[in-house]
Amino acid sequence: MPELPEMENYKKLLGERLTGKTVTKVDVTREKTINVPVQQFKEAVEGRKVVSITRKAKHLVFTLDSGNHLLLHLMLGGLMYVGSENDQLDRTKQVIISFGSVKLCFIGLRLGYLHLLTSDQLTERLSDLGPEPLDPAFSLEAFMKLIDKKRGILKTTLVKQKFLSGIGNLYSDEICFAAQLLPSKQMNELNEEQKRSLYTNIQAVLKRGISLGGYMDVPVFYGDTLTGSYNEHCYVYDREGEPCPRCNQKIIKEKISSRKVFYCLNCQH
């Protein structure tokens, strides 16, 4: 499932190509992907200009000049591609939004969605999300207050969207590795130094993920060489049996609360 760095990468690349452009046509091949009847969706989106593309947690928000918004969540296996009629991925498209000759394709949204919402509806839908870990206002002091007396396992706490927005399976493992903490460690067992390290490495790992274009293995457009570069730079995720980049011991794969987890038993404590 795409996490904060992947969606931030989408936000940047799509924003550069689509902001200010007017929707000329909408095609919906899977009605369950949207939340209103197809004709209502088309009437609300066609002819409207994309004012901005922003990110909240694992969502993208396409704001239209009508004041309405398109809220996107890719879930498992979802992706987007921008191309022309002759430049398309050979995959089933659930929704295609055309901007003249440019087409934005939403692919693999079997569990994901693209919902048309008013500003009030959008606010309500996103109201239960936790703080954005890369928000300038999310200081060390704010983090310390957030985790004060917090209980639960580190791995499962990091992926809770009500705790922090945007972190999932991959980056939670990478954060634990960078902070030299076992993902099974209890939150209330962290000392002050470990809490500071956790805060620092949440930000460092997410920023690193963004700079490397996340882990999505399909480019956003033809010639896109950034998207997916993180796949080649994972510390521990999906590297079972490979040598740890820090101590050279073998990376372990286990399950915590039904979630797969990768870590180094030797240098994470």
Automatic annotation (TrEMBL):
Cofactor: Zn(2+)
Every Formamidopyrimidine-DNA glycosylase catalytic domain range: 2-100
EC number: 3.2.2.23, 4.2.99.18
Keyword GTP-binding (UniProt): no
Domain FPG-type: residue ranges: 235-269
Reactions that this protein is recorded to catalyse: 2'-deoxyribonucleotide-(2'-deoxyribose 5'-phosphate)-2'-deoxyribonucleotide-DNA = a 3'-end 2'-deoxyribonucleotide-(2,3-dehydro-2,3-deoxyribose 5'-phosphate)-DNA + a 5'-end 5'-phospho-2'-deoxyribonucleoside-DNA + H(+); Hydrolysis of DNA containing ring-opened 7-methylguanine residues, releasing 2,6-diamino-4-hydroxy-5-(N-methyl)formamidopyrimidine
InterPro entries: FPG_cat, FPG_N, H2TH_FPG, Ribosomal_uS13-like_H2TH, Znf_DNA_glyclase/AP_lyase, Znf_FPG/IleRS
GO molecular function: 8-oxo-7,8-dihydroguanine DNA N-glycosylase activity; class I DNA-(apurinic or apyrimidinic site) endonuclease activity; damaged DNA binding; double-stranded DNA binding; zinc ion binding
A single GO BP: base-excision repair
Keyword hit for Membrane: no
Superkingdom in the source lineage: Bacteria
Keyword annotations: DNA damage, DNA repair, DNA-binding, Glycosidase, Hydrolase, Lyase, Metal-binding, Multifunctional enzyme, Zinc, Zinc-finger
PANTHER family per UniProt: FORMAMIDOPYRIMIDINE-DNA GLYCOSYLASE
Family the entry assigns: Belongs to the FPG family.
Protein name: Formamidopyrimidine-DNA glycosylase
Organism: Halalkalibacter akibai (strain ATCC 43226 / DSM 21942 / CIP 109018 / JCM 9157 / 1139)
